[in-house]
């Protein structure tokens, strides 16, 4: 009998603020994209290892239109109704070649953070309801409407494949106040408990 070797799942380094890949518009991919299933598995493993609720391909150095979302950690907060907790706990999606076609409602603020920008959190205003077209991991087309916190997480990750960071949405004053932190992150002058790749970190001799 032929022995079957299982592909080893890897935790990938997350790209830090300042890397040019985070500002690139992601490109659509086909189902023939190399090792796509393995890549998606690795992204989930990487996201879970960093205690995140979303991760986009640019954050692991790939300028393609792929991101994942798993809102189950939010379900542990007691601020939600039982119905909301159930929805958050069960929501887990892979989005390929996504396109937000509609955003609706009055903008609301929520304190956002990002695995590529550790220890920086700021209020970001977004519309509460979105309609999004995407391909799932089986390359089947989906069109869905989301609202509330799930929509918020999707919008954040969707921005990544558009080359946009949540810090780009801040006021001039807020950007000025966090400029020093962002510079330190790009230089690797920060302590995190997950693997990161820093663009401007000086190499040790």
TrEMBL record:
The answer to whether the entry has keyword RNA-binding is no
The broad enzyme category this protein falls into is: hydrolase
One GO process term, biological-process aspect: translation
Tell me yes or no: is Nucleotide-binding among this UniProt entry's keywords: no
Coiled-coil residues: none
What CDD domains does the record tag this protein with?
Answer: Pep_deformylase (cd00487)
User: A Pfam family name for this chain?
Assistant: Pep_deformylase
Q: Select a single GO molecular function from the record's annotations and give it.
A: peptide deformylase activity
Under the heading SUPFAM superfamilies, the entry gives: Peptide deformylase (SSF56420)
Cofactor(s) in the UniProt record: Fe(2+)
Q: What EC number is given for this enzyme?
A: 3.5.1.88
Residues where Fe cation binds: 114, 156, 160
How is the cofactor bound, as the UniProt entry phrases it?
A: Binds 1 Fe(2+) ion.
Keywords assigned by UniProt, alphabetized = Hydrolase, Iron, Metal-binding, Protein biosynthesis
Active site (record annotation): 157
Protein purpose: Removes the formyl group from the N-terminal Met of newly synthesized proteins. Requires at least a dipeptide for an efficient rate of reaction. N-terminal L-methionine is a prerequisite for activity but the enzyme has broad specificity at other positions.
Protein family per UniProt: Belongs to the polypeptide deformylase family.
**This chain belongs to which protein, by name?**
Peptide deformylase
Lineage of origin: Bacteria, Pseudomonadati, Bacteroidota, Flavobacteriia, Flavobacteriales
């Amino acid at each position: 009998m032929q022995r079957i070797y299982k592909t080893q799942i890897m935790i990938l380094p997350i790209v830090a603020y300042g890397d040019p890949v985070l500002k690139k518009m992601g490109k659509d991919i086909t189902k023939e994209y190399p090792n796509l299933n393995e890549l998606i598995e690795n992204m989930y493993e990487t996201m879970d290892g960093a205690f995140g609720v979303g991760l986009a391909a640019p954050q692991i150095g790939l300028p393609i239109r792929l991101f994942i979302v798993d809102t189950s950690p939010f379900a542990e907060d007691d601020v939600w109704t039982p119905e909301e907790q159930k929805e958050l706990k069960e929501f887990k999606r892979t989005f390929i070649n996504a396109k937000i076609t509609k955003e609706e409602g009055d903008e609301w603020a929520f304190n956002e953070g990002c695995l590529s920008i550790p220890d920086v959190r700021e209020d970001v205003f977004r519309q509460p309801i979105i309609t999004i077209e995407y391909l799932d991991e089986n390359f089947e087309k989906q069109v869905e409407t989301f609202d509330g916190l799930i929509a918020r997480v999707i919008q954040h990750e969707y921005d990544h494949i558009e080359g946009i960071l949540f810090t780009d949405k801040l006021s001039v004053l807020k950007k000025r106040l966090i400029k020093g932190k962002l510079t330190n992150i790009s230089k690797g002058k920060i302590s995190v408990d997950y693997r990161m790749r820093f663009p401007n970190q000086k190499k040790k001799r």
